[in-house]
Amino acid sequence: MNNTVEQLKVRYEQALSAAFGDEYAKIDPLLEKASNPKFGDYQSNIALSLAKRLGQQPRKIAEQIIRELDVVNICETPQVAGAGFINLTLLSSYLETELKSAYIDLRLGIAKAKTPKRVVIDFSSPNIAKEMHVGHLRSTIIGDSIARVLEFQGHNVLRLNHVGDWGTQFGMLITQLREAESVNDYDLLDLGELVEFYREAKKRFDDDAEFRERSRKAVVDLQSGDIEAKLAWEFLCAISQKEFRTIYKQLDVKFDEVRGESFYKDDLSKVVEDLDKAGLLVEDGGAKCVFLDGFTNKEGDPLPLIVQKSDGGYNYATTDLAAVRYRIEQDKANRLIYVTDAGQANHFAQVFQVARRAGWLPGNIEINHVPFGLVQGEDGKKLKTRSGETVKLIDLLNEAIVRARADLETRLKAEDRQETEDFIANAAQVVGISAVKYADLSQNRTSNYIFSYDRMLALQGNTAPYMLYAYARIQGISRKGEVDFEQLGDSVDILLQHETELTLAKHLLQLDDVINAVEQDLFPNRLCEYLFQLSQKFNQFYDRDRGVPVLNAEEPLRTSRLVLCNLTARTLKLGLSLLGIQVLDRM
C-alpha cells in the first residue's frame, strides 16, 4: 500500500498547511500501521510531536488537523484517540478499487524503481578443489533472493560468483598432479576425489620439505604464465566448476559471471602502486600496509590492512580492493553488495574504508556487506556430521528430498491416493529444496539458526510446505469448481463485505511495501513473514467455520471471492519466486 501512504502524506501536508501555515506543511506525519485493528489501519502521532512546538495540547492539535484533513475517498472519518493519536480506517470501496488495479496488473500493482541502479552482487563464493558445504548454503540462497528482488524492481543486476581459485594451495595441487604416474589417471576425477587428492597433497606439503619447495616453485610458474602449470590449474578449476554447477542447478541459482580471484591477478601490483601514490601506504615489518581509522589492537594501537606481504605476495584484501575498483570503473556499478558470513564483517569494513580513502569508492556509490550467522545442529553447535566433519551441501539437499518424498508417500498412503512416479519425484524435489531454502531465508540473516529437517518439512507453521499447501489449496478450489481463474476477466467487481475478506484484502495490498523494504535493507525474512501471514489470512478467509463460502456463494460475491482467491495465489507465487521457490498445483 505504498501508494496509499504517499496519498495520505499529501493530504496531511495540505491539512497541516491549512491548520498551521506553510512552515508546517512538510512535517512528516509519522504514519504507522495501527498495532490494534480496532484503532484503524494507520495511526499518526504527529499531534504529540507538535505539542511542544505549538504550545498546545496534543488532542487539540489533532482535532485541528482532522478538521482540515480531506481523506473522503480513502478513509472513514478520522478519529482522535488517547493523548492525541489520529487513527485512520480505509474505506471498503477504496480497498476494492486498489485490489482491482492490482488484479489487472501483471506486476500486481507494484511499480518498478523510479531510478534503476547498476547493482553488482557478490555471493556464494566456494573454493576450488573443495566441496561446497552447509556454510555456502546461506550465501548462495540469500544472495539469489536479493538478486531476484532487485531484478524484479527493474535494477540492472550483475550476479557474480567470486570463487577462490588462486593462491599457494594450487602450487601443491599442481605438483601432485605433475607427479602422478599418468595425468590421464585423473581425467575422470569428480570433486570428491579431487578433495581427497587435495588432502594427499596437503599432507605431503606439510611433511616433505622437498615437495614443499617444488610446490612453491609451481606457484611461481603459475603466476608467471607457465603453460603446463596453467593447464593443470585450468583442469583443477574445471572439475570443481562442474560440481558447483550441479548444486546451483538443483537450487535453481544462476550467475551472470564466475570471476575467481585469478580474474584480478594482473591488477594487484597496480592496487599497491596507487595506494602508495595516494600516500596511504606504510611499510611495517617488511609488509606494505594501510593503517586504519577506528580499528585498534588490544594495546590501542592502530591496526593495519596488509596489501602486500613481506615476501612480495598479495592477499585477500588486495584482491578485494582490486575487485571494488573493477566493479565501479569497469562494471559501472553504483551499488555493490557482498553476501558473506558475519565473521568477514571487519575485513570488508576495512577494505571499504581503504577504497574510500583511496578515492576508488565515491560517496555516491552505495556499498553493502550482507552478513549472516551460522547454521547450527540441534545441539546448538555448528552443524557437522556425526564424525565431526562439515556437512556437504549436496548431501544436505539430497537428504531433504528423500525425507520430503517419505512424508509425501506416507500421506498418499493414508489418503489412499494414487499418483504417478513423475508426480511424486517432482513434488519431493520441489518440497525438499523449498523447505531448505525457506527455513534459511525466514530467519533474520544476522542470527544463527538451528537446522531441523522435521521442522522445515512440517505442513504447519512458518515453513515452505505450509506456503505451498496454501497455494495448492487455491488451485484445488479452481479444479473443484471447474473455474479457470484466467477466464474471470478484468471487468469483474470486487466486493468486500466480510471481516476476513477485508483483512485479506488489506494484507494483499501491502506486498509493495514489503518488497521495497527488502530492496533497501536486504532482509529476505521480511518477505517470508509477509507470505506466512498471507497464508494464514487466506486460510481464515476460506475456513469452513469462520470464513466465507466461495464456490457456494451467490453472484456477484462468488466471482468476487474467486478473484480474491486468484489474487492471493498470484501473490504467493510471486513472493515465493522472489525467494527462489517454485510452487505446486497439487501436493
Structural descriptors:
587 residues; alpha/beta; Gyrase A, domain 2; Isoleucyl-tRNA Synthetase, Domain 1; 4 domains; five-stranded parallel beta sheet; four-stranded antiparallel beta sheet; 51% helix; globular
Characterise the protein shown here.
With 587 residues, the chain is an alpha/beta fold. The chain has four domains: 2-90, Arginyl tRNA synthetase N-terminal domain (Gyrase A, domain 2), CATH 3.30.1360; 91-123 and 373-587, Isoleucyl-tRNA Synthetase, Domain 1 (Orthogonal Bundle); 169-258, no CATH class; 260-323 and 346-366, no CATH class. Helices cover 51% and strands 11% of the residues. It contains 20 helices and 14 strands. It has helices at residues 2-20, 46-54, 58-68, 92-103, 134-152, 169-178, 191-207, 209-223, 227-251, 268-277, 316-329, 345-357, 393-414, 421-441, 453-456, 464-480, 499-508, 511-521, 525-541, 557-578, and strands at 31-33, 42-44, 79-81, 85-88, 118-122, 156-161, 257-258, 282-284, 287-296, 302-308, 335-341, 366-372, 375-376, 449-450. Helix 5 (134-152) links the parallel strand 5 (118-122) and strand 6 (156-161). Helix 1 (2-20) crosses helix 3, helix 7 packs across helix 8 (209-223) and helix 13 (393-414) packs across helix 14 (421-441). The two termini are 32 Å apart.
